[in-house]
Amino acid sequence: MSVERLAVGVLASGRGSNLQALLDACAAPDFPARIAVVISDRERAAALDRARSARVEAVWLDPKDFADRESFDRGLVRELEKRQVGLVCQAGYMRILSAAYIRAFFGRALNIHPSLLPAFPGLHAQRQALEHGAKVTGATVHFADEGVDTGPIVLQAAVPVEPNDTEETLSARILVEEHRLYPAAVRLFAEGRLEIVGRRVIIKEPR
């Protein structure tokens, strides 16, 4: 008897390389999750093309159709709830999400960020690391909350900063770790192994 896999919604604004890592993971027959829908705020986002190529529903929500950020996010929540998703993954989604979204999916929304949070939150994290002379940076998967990259941390991976690194070379090495971490975090969530306790995320042993 086949086991029902967790339905995941993915939010993406750009090229969707982390989306592709999730699509590839979900293609494995033993992966406990499936991507039910990919939603973008940009009509021509490459992420939507990746979804269509994988025969996953691709939805463009035009921000111009909504009065403000809050009403856009309520529309976003409706689209996700319509597909009965149990988890939402933000994958290069460039809009700041409002309380309407966080309330609906708190504890069920993950984000990935190219630094070792809480260091270098927000935009251009790789540039921030270089400008600060950091010797080590990395990637972080965390639960989304109402702050910017402030939610409880699920998984992290360290990436050394090389003396000759540019923003591009550092970003490329961090991306390798992002593509490994995000599917691993989704698997842990789908297997019911993540528990939020205050600011900490406890990873429970497999049953």
Structure in words:
With 207 residues, the protein is α/β, with parallel strands linked by helices. The protein folds into two domains: 1-105, Formyl transferase, N-terminal domain (Rossmann fold, 3-Layer(aba) Sandwich); 112-207, Rossmann fold. Helices cover 34% and strands 25% of the residues. It has helices at 17-26, 46-53, 69-82, 99-105, 125-131, 167-190; strands spanning 6-11, 33-40, 57-60, 87-90, 109-113, 136-143, 153-160, 194-197, 200-203. Helix 1 packs parallel to helix 6 (167-190) and helix 3 (69-82) runs parallel beside helix 4 (99-105).
Provide a quick synopsis of the model.
With 207 residues, the protein is of the alpha/beta class.
Task: Quickly list its features.
single chain; 207 residues; alpha/beta; Rossmann fold; 2 domains; 6 helices; 34% helix; globular
**N-end to C-end Cα span:** 19 Å
β-strand number: 9
* Average pLDDT: 96
Uncertain spans: none
| Main β-sheet description | 7 strands, mixed
**Helix and strand run:** EHEHEHEHEHEEHEE
Domains (count): 2
Morphology = globular
> Could you tell me the radius of gyration in angstroms?
17 Å
Strand neighbour order, sheet with most strands: 3-2-1-4-5-6-7
Give the topology:
Layout (H helix, E strand, L loop, with lengths): L5 E6 L5 H10 L6 E8 L5 H8 L3 E4 L8 H14 L4 E4 L8 H7 L3 E5 L11 H7 L4 E8 L9 E8 L6 H24 L3 E4 L2 E4 L4
Parallel strand pairs: 1-2, 1-4, 2-3, 4-5
Antiparallel strand pairs: 5-6, 6-7, 8-9
Helix pairs in contact: 1-6, 3-4
